[in-house]
Amino acid sequence: MTLSGIVLDSPDARELAAFYQRLLGWSVVQDEPEWVKLGAPGGGPGLSFQTESAYVRPVWPAGPDDPQMSVHLDIHVEDLDQAGAHAEKAGATKADFQPQDDVRVYLDPAGHPFCLFL
């Protein structure tokens, strides 16, 4: 078995794919009305987005009655401040809760948390 990709649900696949394209600089390798796949420049698993009409935005950090996140992305960076500024310019929001000093948690436009780490 080979992992070929990670899929994130969203109310708008194209909108979320465009955000990650700005954030990561990856290219679109598949573009359908409700499905978009980005490919990593060096190969490996892609990152895909599917439109889900019943999508419920997760809450970070989730409380007992909040929608739970089911996955998050870890993105290695060389400089947290520079990478954070880039993420915000791309459309991310810095999460209010930051659990570690050497990690920054951001939310993508659909509310999926992702971590920038050194």
Commentary on this structure:
The protein is of the alpha/beta class. The protein has two domains: 1-55, Signal recognition particle alu RNA binding heterodimer, srp9/1 (2-Layer Sandwich), CATH 3.30.720.120; 56-118, 2,3-Dihydroxybiphenyl 1,2-Dioxygenase, domain 1, CATH 3.10.180.10. It has helices at 13-24, 80-90, and strands spanning 5-10, 27-32, 35-39, 46-51, 73-76, 93-94, 103-107, 113-117. The strands form two sheets. A four-stranded mixed beta sheet has the order 1-4-3-2, with helices on one face. Strand 3 and strand 4 (46-51) form a beta hairpin. The longest helix is centred in the N-terminal third of the chain and has 12 residues, at 13-24. The N and C termini lie far apart (30 Å). InterPro entries: Glyas_Bleomycin-R_OHBP_Dase, Glyoxalase_6, VOC_core. Residues 2-118 form the VOC domain. This is VOC domain-containing protein. It holds the Pfam family Glyoxalase_6.
